[in-house]
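Lecture notes, part 5. Sequence design as translation. It can be helpful to think of inverse folding as translation between two languages: the language of shapes and the language of residues. The source text, in structure tokens, appears below.
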């Protein structure tokens, strides 16, 4: 067995070295991305040689499939290697000392190949950053950069984030003068793409320190790994001296928010941003720090903790994500599941592998496998699936029930049959027992594409639907946060008659320009940059003249939102990030994840021999692997 394990590690080292060759051939906008010396080092790790060939630079983006916890998928443009024959294990096992030495040597070769692969990828990303910095900017972009710089918040002389909005037309700031974790993400991406990483590193470390703060609402404290929704820099007297002051960070974990809702998405965005920072800067030492590793584990322990739920999805309350007011998304909203899946994928790359982390890595893999199957199988709807639901039988009591969630066909809304195109589909907004939320939520669907939570066919179907329903989802301003809006009695019951979430306003069918950068990422990943350019062109016509609003109202997004803040920072940053990503699409690799086919094969049910375990994977395998 020792010899077989050693052979497996050697094959892994070869695959990683081959991946380095593949990455070194990828065309970037700068010659510096060639990485010839590193590619040569990678070739030396291979026991056989591969013919040198340049991969064609097609429209579809192919991010580097690097993942230290699994064997990398080989690029289709790289000629296959003729692997040396694998020797059968000897009948007499080698001495323990010899086996340990051989295993250590193989592991060292594997680590060397991984480092070479990271270095090649880093050289390409650095070339991309230089290309971004040297590109010619439009007047709208120059204005946006000036506004973004004006929104920067400093703490003890160093930048730590950007305020949510910097609207000079109002003196009532509420919490728009704070640094929100979710709001800062597009600002961080814009800074990273421009090569300005200091503010992002400071943000990651200072929010990490806030994670350990005590948070209490009415004598009750939430989980230890909770990240704050936002924080503000305040000046307080130093030791009671009214003449001397010091700056402190004042976090809000939801105890001051409207509705007192904890921000479930903050920790997920923090992990996603940490991975993006490390990939584009090469500062992997940051993710290896003890405090950072502890922070990642606290977030994961909070998300992976056992509960009463029968599903792999995260159970959350209303208002726990971007839609932070009552909108009927309590339960298992798609946005949270997509971010959860993405954060698990990112964390798996960054967690240090040791005896203490093996159980956590195993739990991550099991959850990823179950979550991807659950979303792909039960959240996806197209014309065929809707017709199946229309013919569902109910009250099925058996392990082999088709209508597992007891969905009543009468739940299918009247607008859906005429709205969904023949070619295309989407992931529904929520799924619970006897309840399917058929609304289209943009962020959840787009991030399902970016993170590969959706299959290739499903991702294509989502973009096909957006293109077919352009007048509904984009129209005069991209992008509808959800479609359709809740109206009449439905609005009154579900929102509680919320005056801010009236039909086709704010979270209830409003148009949010910040979603541009996520839409651009999804389009780049699927080779549909034409759609992203079209959306950016629509936004460019109005954003600057309208003073960069937070959101737009009406069914087609014609009016600036009735309570919309002007000079909204994530509107500005989302536009900038989209423009840079479209000009340098290879930079999308810091955020996207490619399909992990090994996850689809894994299933916790396969190790359980109980006759009561009935898994749907075999029956649905064709759907999952598409």
């Amino acid at each position: 067995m020792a010899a077989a394990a050693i052979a497996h590690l050697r094959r892994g080292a070869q695959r990683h070295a081959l991946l380095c060759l593949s990455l070194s051939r990828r065309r970037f906008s700068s010659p510096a991305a060639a990485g010839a010396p590193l590619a040569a080092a990678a070739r030396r790790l291979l026991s056989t040689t591969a013919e040198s060939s340049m991969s064609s630079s097609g429209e579809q983006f192919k991010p580097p499939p690097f993942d230290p916890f699994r064997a990398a998928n080989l690029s289709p443009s790289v000629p296959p290697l003729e692997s040396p024959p694998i020797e059968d294990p000897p009948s007499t096992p080698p001495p323990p000392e010899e086996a340990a030495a051989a295993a250590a040597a193989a592991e060292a070769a594997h680590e060397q190949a991984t480092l070479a692969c990271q270095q090649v990828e880093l050289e390409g990303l650095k070339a991309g950053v230089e290309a971004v910095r040297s590109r010619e900017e439009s007047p709208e972009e120059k204005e946006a950069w000036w506004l973004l710089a004006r929104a920067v918040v400093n703490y003890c002389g160093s930048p730590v984030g950007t305020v949510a909005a910097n609207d000079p037309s109002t003196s009532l700031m509420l919490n728009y003068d704070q640094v929100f974790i979710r709001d800062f993400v597009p600002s961080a991406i814009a800074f990273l793409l421009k090569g300005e990483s200091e503010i992002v590193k400071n943000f990651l470390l200072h929010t990490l320190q806030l994670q350990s703060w005590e948070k209490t609402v009415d004598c009750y404290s939430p989980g230890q790994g909770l990240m704050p929704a936002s924080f503000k820099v305040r000046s307080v007297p130093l030791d009671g001296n009214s003449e001397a002051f010091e700056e402190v960070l004042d976090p809000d974990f939801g105890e001051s928010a409207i509705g007192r809702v904890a921000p479930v998405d903050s920790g997920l965005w923090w992990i996603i941003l940490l991975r993006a920072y490390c990939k584009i800067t090469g500062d992997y030492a940051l993710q290896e720090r003890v405090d950072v590793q502890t922070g990642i584990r606290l977030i994961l322990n909070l998300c992976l903790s056992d509960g009463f739920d029968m599903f792999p999805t995260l159970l959350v309350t209303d208002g726990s994500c971007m839609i932070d007011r009552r909108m009927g998304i309590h339960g298992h909203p798609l946005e949270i599941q997509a971010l959860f899946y993405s954060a698990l994928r990112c964390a798996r790359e960054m967690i240090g592998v040791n005896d203490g982390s093996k159980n956590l890595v195993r739990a991550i893999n099991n959850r990823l496998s179950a979550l991807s199957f659950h979303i792909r199988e039960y959240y996806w709807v197209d014309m065929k699936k809707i017709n199946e639901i229309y013919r569902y039988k109910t009250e099925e009591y058996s392990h082999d029930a088709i209508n597992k969630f007891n969905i009543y066909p009468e739940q299918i809304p009247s607008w859906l049959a005429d709205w969904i195109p023949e070619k295309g589909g989407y992931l529904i907004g929520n799924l619970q027992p006897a309840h399917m939320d058929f609304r289209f939520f943009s962020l959840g669907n787009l991030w399902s594409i970016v993170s590969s939570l959706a299959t290739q066919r499903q991702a294509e179907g989502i973009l096909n639907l957006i293109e077919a329903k352009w007048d509904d989802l984009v129209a005069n301003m991209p992008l509808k946060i959800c479609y359709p809006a809740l109206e009449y009695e439905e609005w009154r019951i579900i929102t509680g008659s919320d005056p801010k979430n009236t039909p086709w306003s704010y979270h209830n069918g409003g148009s949010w320009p910040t979603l541009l950068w996520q839409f651009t990422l999804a389009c780049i990943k699927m080779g549909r940059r034409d759609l992203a350019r079209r959306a950016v062109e629509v936004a460019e016509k109005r954003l600057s003249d309208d003073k960069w609003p937070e959101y737009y109202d009406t069914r087609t997004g014609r009016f600036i939102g009735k309570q919309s803040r002007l000079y909204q920072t994530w509107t500005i940053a989302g536009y900038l990030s989209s423009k840079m990503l479209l000009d340098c699409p290879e930079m999308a690799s810091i955020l996207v994840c490619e399909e992990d086919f090994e996850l689809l094969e894994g299933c916790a049910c396969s190790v359980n021999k109980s006759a009561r375990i009935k898994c749907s994977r075999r029956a649905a395998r064709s759907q999952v692997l598409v």
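The translated text above is only one of many valid answers, since several sequences can fold into similar shapes. The longest helix spans residues 96-134.
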